Amino acid sequence: MNEQDGDGRAAETTERPLVSGPAHLADDEFYRALADRTRRRLAYYLTMQSETTVEDSTTALVGWDVSGQGSMASPSDHKEMRTALEHVHLPMLADAGLIEYDPDSGTVAAEDLHEDVEWLLERSITTDPE
């Protein structure tokens, strides 16, 4: 990005990327990845972990869902969430550069996110009505 300095000359400025991958605040893919509550919760959960598994992420998200409803999770809730994570949510977050996901090992980790993205995730969780 070029800006003019005090003498009217173009001065170079450097912008820090928001994540270490391709996702930036101006990218539609970034917003599509965070448009779903489950993906926002998953991305937020992963910022609190150094590395975790699909199984642990599934358990955390199912627990999060049912705690807001005051009910108990069923095996079918767990199976549905895991399937959705493996086939939709994890690949979408990985494609947006927000997480690292290895389907072969079942490991998941957050990418090194810019503090503004971490703030956005935290804010979206703390203002979630459920």
Polypeptide structure, described:
The chain is an alpha+beta fold and 130 residues long. It has a single domain (18-126), classed as Orthogonal Bundle (Arc Repressor Mutant, subunit A), CATH 1.10.10. The protein is built from 5 helices and 5 strands, in the order ββααβααββα. The strands form 2 sheets. The chain has a 3-stranded antiparallel sheet with strand order 3-5-4. Strand 1 (2-4) and strand 2 (10-12) form a beta hairpin. Helix 2 crosses helix 5 and helix 3 packs across helix 4. The protein is globular.
Write a concise keyword list for the protein shown above.
130 residues, Arc Repressor Mutant, subunit A, three-stranded antiparallel beta sheet, 5 helices, 5 strands, globular
**H-E order:** EEHHEHHEEH
Structurally, the number of domains stands at 1
Count, helices: 5
Overall spatial form: globular
Strand count, sense and closure of the main sheet? Answer: 3 strands, antiparallel
Query: So, CATH architecture?
Result: Orthogonal Bundle
What percent of residues are in strands? 5-15%
CATH class type: Mainly Alpha
Termini separation: 41 Å
Low-confidence stretches: 10-14
CATH topology: Arc Repressor Mutant, subunit A
Count the beta strands: 5
Order the strands across the largest sheet as they lie in space: 3-5-4
* Arithmetic mean pLDDT: 83
Q: What does the radius of gyration come to?
A: 18 Å
Instruction: Give the class from helix and strand content and strand pairing.
Output: alpha+beta
Helix content: 40-55%
Walk me through the topology.
Elements: E1 2-4, E2 10-12, H1 28-33, H2 37-47, E3 52-53, H3 54-69, H4 75-95, E4 99-102, E5 107-110, H5 115-126
Antiparallel strand pairs: 1-2, 3-5, 4-5
Helix pairs in contact: 2-5, 3-4
